[in-house]
């Protein structure tokens, strides 16, 4: 059976889309081909790598990529994780693609002490994990 392609999109492909990519590969990698990209490539956020490591998922080998039109056009699911990407995402030409927007706060914009910033990253990570688990269980 051919795996369905899930393409996670965000502005910079540094945090939220990387977290979603890591969790879907962990929980649904047997059923889904998982890719992520951004409108721009901001580099993999080191805090995202660290908080995912805490959750038992290694995303340290991920790269920050810009949207690939070929992947976009063959995706079964195009899922934006931030409002900016949702508004500015290139038109999906592929009529079979299901496009969803799952909005999450940008943890990279968190301010405060190191502890407060890490807490925001964990909060967003856990919210994304819950959403991914629901998607794997229900297909929605």
Shape: globular
The N- and C-terminal alpha carbons lie at a distance of 20 Å
Name the CATH class.
Answer: Alpha Beta
Radius of gyration, in Å, reads 14 Å
Q: Any overview of this molecule?
A:
By secondary structure, this protein is of the alpha/beta class. The chain has a single domain (4-138), classed as Rossmann fold (3-Layer(aba) Sandwich). The chain has five helices and four strands. The chain has helices at 16-28, 46-54, 69-74, 83-88, 114-138, and strands at 4-10, 32-38, 77-80, 98-101. The chain has a four-stranded parallel sheet with strand order 2-1-3-4. Helix 4 (83-88) links the parallel strand 3 and strand 4 (98-101). Helix 1 (16-28) packs across helix 5 (114-138) and helix 2 (46-54) packs across helix 5 (114-138). It starts with a strand and ends with a helix.
């Amino acid at each position: 059976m051919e795996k369905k392609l899930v393409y996670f999109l965000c502005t910079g492909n540094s945090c939220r889309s990387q977290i979603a990519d890591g969790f879907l590969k962990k929980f649904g990698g047997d059923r889904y081909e998982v890719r992520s990209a951004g409108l721009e490539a901001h580099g993999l956020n080191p805090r995202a790598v660290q908080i995912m490591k805490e959750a038992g998922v290694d995303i340290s080998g991920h790269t920050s990529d810009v949207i690939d039109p070929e992947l976009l056009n063959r995706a079964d699911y195009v899922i934006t994780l931030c409002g900016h990407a949702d508004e500015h995402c290139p038109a999906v030409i592929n009529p079979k693609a299901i496009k969803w927007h799952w909005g999450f706060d940008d943890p990279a914009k968190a301010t405060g002490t190191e502890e407060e910033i890490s807490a925001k990253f964990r909060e967003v990570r856990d919210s994304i994990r819950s959403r991914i688990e629901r998607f794997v269980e229900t297909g929605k």
